[in-house]
Amino acid sequence: AGERDQNLVSEVVWFTHALQKVERQKERERERERKKEIGRERERERERERERRGRKRERGEGEREREKEKKDLGENIESELTLAHRSLEREIERDRGREKKREREKEREL
Fold first, then answer.
1. What is the pTM of this model?
2. What pLDDT is recorded for position 55?
3. How far apart are CA 43 and CA 14, in angstroms?
4. Where does 1-110 show beta strands of DSSP type E?
């Protein structure tokens, strides 16, 4: 009976160890799955962030284009005003020249 009891104890110990081993394997597998899910979630978050940056960049590029158009328009207006101003200055100089010429002619008549 003692040997039989010893064999039963050995089987119970073996079975308990085997069961613990299976449980540890299952726990490692669950841990791997949790890590994979965390990795997938992080990848989804990175993808959402890339999409958000892409939309932001597109809006920024649109904004930069509008700013460039405003700047170009402003430069064109400034250029036109400069040309008009120069034209007026030349006209004023011609008028002054004519006025001086008339004054000299009047002085000669006197």
1. 0.42
2. 81
3. 43
4. none
